[in-house]
Specification:
This protein folds into 2 domains: about 100 residues, no CATH class; about 150 residues, Rossmann fold (3-Layer(aba) Sandwich). The strands form 2 sheets. Strands 2-1-3-4-5 form a 5-stranded parallel β-sheet, sandwiched between helices. Strands 6-7 form a two-stranded antiparallel sheet. It starts with a helix and ends with a strand. The protein is built from 11 helices and 7 strands. The longest helix is centred in the middle third of the chain and has 25 residues.
Length: about 260
C-alpha cells in the first residue's frame, strides 16, 4: 500500500460514503459503551464493514471514527469522559492491528519512522494511528511517547531514522516541543533527518515551527505519510546519484529521472 492510495481514499472521506454511514454510527456508540473489549471492536470491523474492500479501509474507518468522536465533543453531543474512553479504546485497537501487521511482515531494510511527542503530551491517539499507517505501508516504526527526550534509547533510534514525526497537541508544552526538536538535531549533528510535525498545537503555531526550521507541517495523518514517503524517495534518489556521479533532473512535477 502507498501513501498516495491512502490519501486518495481520505480525500473522498468515509463519512461521505453512504455505505459506511450506518457502521460509523454504530461503531461510535460501541467504543464508548461500558464493558466493551478490544476484541469486540475488532470483531465489528471484520463483520460490519462492506465486503470486498482492501484491508486498509479498516484503518480509514478507525481514523474517521476518531474524528467523529472529536466533532461530537466539540458540538456537546458527547462528554469528555466518553471521548476519553473512546480514544483509549481506539488506541488499544490500533496497537493490536499494528502488532498483527508487524508479526506477519518484517523487513530489516524497510525505511524507519520514529514517532515522538513532547514530554508530558497526553493526546497520542493520532501518533498511534500514524504508526499503523506506516506499518501498513511496510515501514518500520518506533513510537516513543512519554519518554524523556534525552533518553539514550530515543537518541539511538533517531540516529537510524529516515524521518521523525512529532505530534504536538497541547499548546502548554511549547517549551518541551522546542527541547524535543533540539534533541532530535543533536542526535544527528552530521546529517539532518526530516522532521514532520502535526497536531492541534502545531497547526496554531506555524510561525514558531517555521522559525525552528521544521521541514513540514501536516494537517492529517494521511498528508504526513505522503510527505514522509516523498522525503524518503528524494533521499534515496540523492544517495543513488551521488554514488553514480550523476545528477537528478527536476521539472515542474518534481524529480523525474537521472541525467549525466
Amino acid at each position: 500500500m502507498t501513501a498516495e492510495r491512502l490519501a486518495s481514499r481520505y480525500d473522498i472521506g468515509l463519512e461521505h460514503d453512504n455505505r459506511y454511514s450506518k457502521a460509523l454510527a454504530s461503531f461510535c456508540d460501541l467504543v464508548v459503551r461500558p464493558g466493551v473489549r478490544t476484541s469486540m471492536l475488532l470483531d465489528f470491523l471484520r463483520r460490519e464493514l462492506p465486503s470486498g474492500e482492501p484491508e486498509f479501509v479498516k484503518y480509514l474507518f478507525i481514523e474517521t471514527t476518531a474524528r467523529q468522536l472529536g466533532s461530537k465533543w466539540i458540538s456537546d453531543d458527547c462528554d469528555f469522559v466518553d471521548v476519553t474512553i473512546g480514544a483509549a479504546r481506539l488506541q488499544e485497537l490500533i496497537k493490536l492491528l499494528s502488532f498483527q501487521i508487524k508479526s506477519l511482515h518484517s523487513d530489516p531494510n524497510a525505511p524507519l519512522a520514529v514517532l515522538l511527542t513532547p514530554f508530558g503530551e497526553q493526546h497520542t491517539l493520532m501518533q498511534h494511528m500514524l504508526g499503523l499507517l506506516f506499518d501498513a505501508m511496510g515501514w518500520s516504526t518506533h513510537l516513543l511517547d512519554g519518554r524523556e527526550p534525552k533518553d539514550p534509547y530515543v537518541c539511538s533510534l533517531i540516529e537510524q531514522a529516515d524521518v521523525v514525526c512529532i505530534g504536538w497537541s497541547n499548546q502548554q508544552l511549547k517549551g518541551a516541543f522546542g527541547d524535543l526538536v533540539s534533541t532530535v538535531r543533536s542526535c544527528r549533528p552530521d546529517s539532518r533527518v526530516p522532521i514532520v510535525v502535526g497536531g492541534a498545537a502545531a497547526l496554531d503555531s506555524i510561525d514558531f515551527l517555521v522559525g525552528l526550521g521544521i521541514d513540514c507541517i501536516c494537517d492529517s495523518v494521511y498528508s504526513a505519510t505522503r510527505i514522509c514517503e516523498r522525503f524518503f524517495e528524494l533521499e534515496t534518489i540523492s544517495r543513488r546519484t551521488k554514488a553514480s556521479g550523476r545528477r537528478a533532473a527536476v521539472n515542474a512535477s518534481g524529480l523525474d529521472g537521472l541525467v549525466r
